[in-house]
Amino acid sequence: EPSDGARRSAPVHRSRRRSRRSRRGETDPPSSEVILAGQSNGGIGAFYCAVARPSKFRAIVVIPGQYLGDVCDLEKLRGKPVWMLLGSQDDPGRWLEPTRMTAEALKKGGARVELEVLEGQGHVPAVAASRLYDWIDRFR
């Protein structure tokens, strides 16, 4: 557990950071700094957030993820980088095929999609953090 000093200083630090941003008129981080990410149902949620506010982020990573709404909505993500990962041993009806269909709809809508099926892995495949960071860094 943190010392009393650490507990007292943390809110002050956050408060100062908010104050500096507020003085500059910023309330949200710039969209160039935001990447939506989610695993499983979180991947589904990432797509819903992306469709609802496409100007608020620069890329999407889902491990796995799919969009369950109207595929025409995905046209709002034109030009956005999207990395979709899923395990080859995931449930075909629930995840494999719907994820592939989402990837195709994204491509048709003009998104920059990379779909990667990881052989021998299940529902939430293991991905090295360095691979995620390298992908994210490509879009800075």
What does this structure look like?
The protein is an alpha/beta fold and 140 residues long. The protein has four helices and four strands; from the N terminus they run H-E-H-E-E-H-E-H. The chain has helices at residues 4-23, 41-52, 92-108, 129-137, and strands at residues 35-38, 59-62, 81-87, 112-118. A four-stranded parallel sheet has the order 1-2-3-4, covered by helices on one side. Strand 1 (35-38), helix 2 (41-52) and strand 2 form a beta-alpha-beta unit. The longest helix is centred in the N-terminal third of the chain and has 20 residues, at 4-23.
Helix content: 40-55%
User: What is the number of beta strands?
Assistant: 4
Distance between the termini: 36 Å
Molecular shape:
globular
Please summarize the sheet with the most strands: 4 strands, parallel
> Spatial order of the strands in the main sheet?
1-2-3-4
Average per-residue pLDDT, rounded, comes to: 85
Compute the gyration radius: what is it? 18 Å
Low-pLDDT regions = 1-17
What is the multimeric organization of the chains shown? Answer: single chain
The amount of beta strand, in percent, is 15-25%
